[in-house]
Amino acid sequence: MTMTLPERPAAALPPVPARRRARRTPLTWLRGGGLTNLLFVLPMLFVFFFFSWSPIVQSVIMSLQKTNLIVSEWVGLDNYVTVLTDPELGRAVVNTLYFAVLALLLGFPLPLLMAVLMSEVKRGKGLYSALAYLPVVIPPVVAVLLWKFFYDASPNGVFNTVLGWVGIPPQPWLSSAAQAMPSLVLEATWAAAGGSIIIYLAALLSVPPELYDAAEVDGAGIWRKFWHVTLPQLRGILFIMLILQVIATAQVFLEPFLFTGGGPAGATKTVLLYIYDKAFRNSLGGDYGEATAVSVLLAIVLAVLSWLYFRLTNRWSTS
Amino acid sequence: MKVDDLAERSIVSASERRRPGTRIGMRVVHVFLFVTLVVAGLGPILWLMKAAITPSQDTITTPFALWPNGVDWANLSTAWNDIHIDQFFFNTIVIALGAWFTQLLVATTAGYALSVLRPRYAPILNGLVLATLFIPGIVLLVPLYLTIVRPPLLEVSLLNNYLAVWLPMAANAFNILLVKRFFDSLPREVFEAAKTDGAGAFRLFWSIVLPMSKPILGVVSVFAIIAAWKDYLWPKLVLPDPAVQPLSVRLPDVASQTELDVFLAALAIATLIPIAMFLLFQSVFLRSAGLGGAVKG
């Protein structure tokens, strides 16, 4: 998809004589359909002004203020200094990065592998796609609550029973600081893999078959065709999925919030959980200034990533 | 269109497939895919369905035994009536439908204004909307929440009002982008012909542009309903009253005060409807998934 407007026949534009354009009065505006235009723009203006543009500005302002919602006072960069020197935020950033890296190691190659294998089977592809997509259909909250039960640390827990079949002793899963984060990532990967598989399946269809034919003429086997034809052809979509995944994992909230609440001992407290705790955990009114300061910092990081993603999707879809 | 028809060939060629070694390999791939996908995709759902009608004690002590002490159908009705799944289900549907309507309303009118009507200020609006694509919504959590608690112009808080969920969801730049691009691709000659026949801006919108745009309206609808159905954090913040909460918000809260078997039955009911929808509209879901992943931020 391109950002630029497609070329359009001149007839599409309302013919406005040059004379009239020079002098625009409310009357010409009205006659030219100005009021109708405004009516169509109004719903968008309304929701974007109140629920997008103004909160964006507000969040920058609030990050520079101390506020209890009745009186606000300007404190300059104090909020930023406080949160940036807070070791707990550093911990949250490290936890979020840990989640992101684990999710990349596990969640990135797995859907690609599945999609490549699925594209090779000739029968049952529809069934396989549907099966792969099923976990995506389960509401995320339900999935997390179900897996929370699966992760039961007792020897009779669902996963521990399965481990028992192959002779592995029961694992503590969510109740151990070391295993909690990998457990979260495992569930998140399971929940999201189906969507990525469907996207890769579509991308694999767009690999020009001639390239495989040509590679075979040069004597390439299955593995070399995958490595030298398929992967390079997919590099655009792979990079986009990578950025999308990083953007998504930077905002991870549901899993740590519902599985562990950030525990045990803060081992799964992510940046978003940190923001949530600052703003909403205290029922008497949160520390909105510090919470928005962290939000703004996170927004800057994510905006850079989104911009990169946007540039890439444009180039990728126009080329 | 079936996926299989499109794939003329893939990595493994027809001649390679005839080789005995590759043939065994493909057999192995088949078995691997089947087992993995059934275990990972279907397994948890089947287990949940089984557990939903099993007494708690059996599920806790022998999670994989098939009804050692009989089936407990009463779980389902207890979940439906005592946890009031019916009511929260209704709330979820109301939230999803409202979010669907507001998103479609804003996206189509805005897309029409920016693509077809194109007032002089259209490029500025377009830029302002596109810019919000780079700001992830979740970062606006705090100021957006405060906007809901103390809305401008209004004197009442919008907490526990469904507008608090519907309206922010409608401020979705991605929808506008999708719809505008689709409108851009519609043939201008049709619009000109309609105008010559005396159709005004409203008539053109309602009788020409919208009927021509069913595919993209379908995609936006699927996105809108799925997003509303899945949302957790935002409805949790702005709908503190349990009576108006959707299922996704209510389920974690009732977990601690509900017997395990009844709770699992509630989870099963909450899963069945989306799965039924998926099986009914599989092709729409999978098509949107391909599109959504490729362009959605």
CATH domain class of the largest domain in chain B: Mainly Alpha
By DSSP (H or I, 4+ residues per run), the number of helices of chain A equals 15
The percent range for strand residues of chain B is under 5%
Mean pLDDT of chain B: 86
Question: Pairing-aware structural class of the strands and helices of chain B?
Answer: mainly alpha
Structural class by helix and strand composition of chain A: mainly alpha
Strand order of the largest sheet of chain A: 1-2
Topology:
The complex is a heterodimer of chains A (319) and B (297).
Chain A: H1 18-22, H2 26-31, H3 34-63, E1 65-67, E2 72-74, H4 78-84, H5 87-107, H6 109-120, H7 125-137, H8 140-150, H9 158-165, H10 177-205, H11 209-217, H12 222-250, H13 254-260, H14 271-281, H15 288-318
Helix pairs in contact in A: 3-15, 4-15, 5-10, 5-12, 5-14, 6-10, 7-10, 8-13, 10-12, 10-13, 12-15, 14-15
Chain B: H1 3-6, H2 14-18, H3 20-52, H4 56-61, H5 74-82, H6 85-117, H7 122-131, H8 141-149, H9 163-170, H10 173-184, H11 188-196, H12 201-212, H13 214-230, H14 233-238, H15 247-254, H16 260-280, H17 282-295
Explain briefly what this protein structure is.
With 319 residues, chain A is mostly helical. Chain A has helices spanning 18-22, 26-31, 34-63, 78-84, 87-107, 109-120, 125-137, 140-150, 158-165, 177-205, 209-217, 222-250, 254-260, 271-281, 288-318; strands spanning 65-67, 72-74.
Can you tell me about this structure?
The complex is a heterodimer of chains A (319) and B (297). Chain A has 319 residues and is mostly helical. Chain A contains 15 helices and two strands. Chain A has helices spanning 18-22, 26-31, 34-63, 78-84, 87-107, 109-120, 125-137, 140-150, 158-165, 177-205, 209-217, 222-250, 254-260, 271-281, 288-318; strands at 65-67, 72-74. In chain A, strands 1-2 form a two-stranded antiparallel sheet. In chain A, helix 7 (125-137) packs across helix 10, helix 8 runs parallel beside helix 13 (254-260) and helix 12 (222-250) packs antiparallel against helix 15 (288-318). The longest helix of chain A is centred in the last third of the chain and has 31 residues, at 288-318. In chain A, 39% of the residues are buried. Chain B is an all-alpha fold. Chain B folds into two domains: 11-78, no CATH class; 84-257, MetI-like (MetI-like fold). Chain B has helices spanning 3-6, 14-18, 20-52, 56-61, 74-82, 85-117, 122-131, 141-149, 163-170, 173-184, 188-196, 201-212, 214-230, 233-238, 247-254, 260-280, 282-295. In chain B, helix 6 (85-117) crosses helix 12 (201-212), helix 6 (85-117) packs antiparallel against helix 13 (214-230) and helix 13 (214-230) packs across helix 17 (282-295). Chain B starts with a helix and ends with a helix. The relative contact order of chain B is 0.12. Residues 1-7 and 293-297 of chain B have low confidence and may be disordered. The chains are: A mainly alpha (319), B mainly alpha (297). At the A-B interface, helix 3, helix 6, helix 7, helix 8 and helix 10 of A face helix 1, helix 3, helix 6, helix 7 and helix 8 of B.
